[in-house]
Write a structure and sequence with these properties.
This protein is about 40% helix and about 20% strand. The protein is an alpha+beta fold and about 300 residues long. Helix 1 (about 40-60) packs parallel to helix 2 and helix 8 packs antiparallel against helix 9. The longest helix is centred in the last third of the chain and has 23 residues, at about 265-285. The two termini are about 30 Å apart.
């Protein structure tokens, strides 16, 4: 689970918060019983992550929006998360079993129905030439125009009414939804686009911090070392949040690179390393008087190290 944010200069990014380890059921017997590990599906683990973050968001006075990919738009995840009061935004299957809105019953005719009687085909809606609209939205840090259709429907795994947004791209179409009908089409598209920042987190945590490469045997130690990588990633991002571009990104040693390119997470980590080493050197020089040759050599070594 990552917290998706929009930096005023660098656009969307995400801060890793917590992860849960999925272990296949057939692998469970190989884990010693004394470790106390129990099998849980990916949907159950995802719901537990939302259960953990919900009280934190409430205490912070924030409205919780959970943005998920199509693999999590299933009842075992959706219904418990909706019961916690979260707003879910996700991608629908193109063959999702949608129905229209129910008709209100007359008084004294029993409980009002949750679902309509008529099925809705997303493929037919997307294939129809009429009804398309355009809107401006911010996607991947850029303001662009999207062609879309938006309508209300009922969906069994959600347990009621959802807002559906079909986005038309150059060669295909994609359906998205929110369990809150009040959420606008632009908010749904923008939120789902911001979800892509977690993919960058996966890359940075593995490639920059080396998550998953730790040589440990205890399964709980694996969980602990993975979270150390997550939190180091988040702390570096927080340290760099208000730092100027010139401090985070020095391209003098790579003239082939674009000097105005957004600083990567690796750039921010290198900048923090330089800051720490320079602070240490300044502290030492305040106590001891070192020759200039030693200082210049130290600075050169620092540049190589970072």
């Amino acid at each position: 689970m990552s917290l998706a944010l929009r930096h005023p200069l660098w656009g969307p990014l995400a801060l890793p918060l917590r992860a849960m380890l999925y272990v296949r059921q057939k692998t469970i017997p190989s884990i010693p019983r004394k470790r106390g590990w129990r099998f849980r599906t990916k949907l159950e683990l995802a719901a537990r992550l939302v259960k953990w973050i919900t009280p934190l968001a409430k205490r912070a006075g924030k409205t919780l929006w959970v943005v998920v990919d199509g693999g999590y738009t299933k009842e075992p995840f959706l219904k418990p998360v909706i019961a916690m009061g979260a707003t879910i935004i996700g991608r629908l299957r193109k063959d999702a079993a949608l129905r229209d809105l129910p008709r209100p019953l007359r008084r004294g005719r029993g409980r009002p129905p949750k679902y309509g009687k008529n099925k809705i085909s997303l493929a037919k809606r997307a294939g129809h030439r009429q009804g398309w609209q355009t809107m401006q939205c911010t996607v991947y840090g850029k303001t662009i125009v999207k062609t879309y259709k938006a309508f209300l429907a009922t969906y069994g795994p959600v347990g009621g009414v959802i807002r559906v947004v079909i986005v038309k791209e150059e060669h295909d179409w994609f359906p998205f939804f929110s369990n809150d009908p009040r959420v606008s089409a632009a908010e749904i598209v923008e939120a789902f686009a911001d979800r892509a920042t977690i993919e960058q987190d996966f890359h940075d945590v593995k490639e920059v911090w080396g998550a998953g490469q730790q040589q440990v045997r205890n399964i709980w130690t694996n969980v602990a070392t993975y979270h150390l990588n997550l939190w180091m990633h988040t702390l570096v991002e927080l340290w760099a949040w208000n730092r100027p571009h010139a401090e985070l990104c020095d391209r003098r040693d790579s003239p082939w690179d674009d000097p105005d390119r957004r600083p990567s997470h690796a750039d921010r980590r290198k900048a923090l390393r330089r800051h720490i080493l320079q602070t240490e050197l300044s502290t030492i020089t305040e106590v001891w008087s070192l020759p200039r040759k030693i200082l210049r050599l130290t600075q050169r070594l620092m540049a190589l190290a970072t």
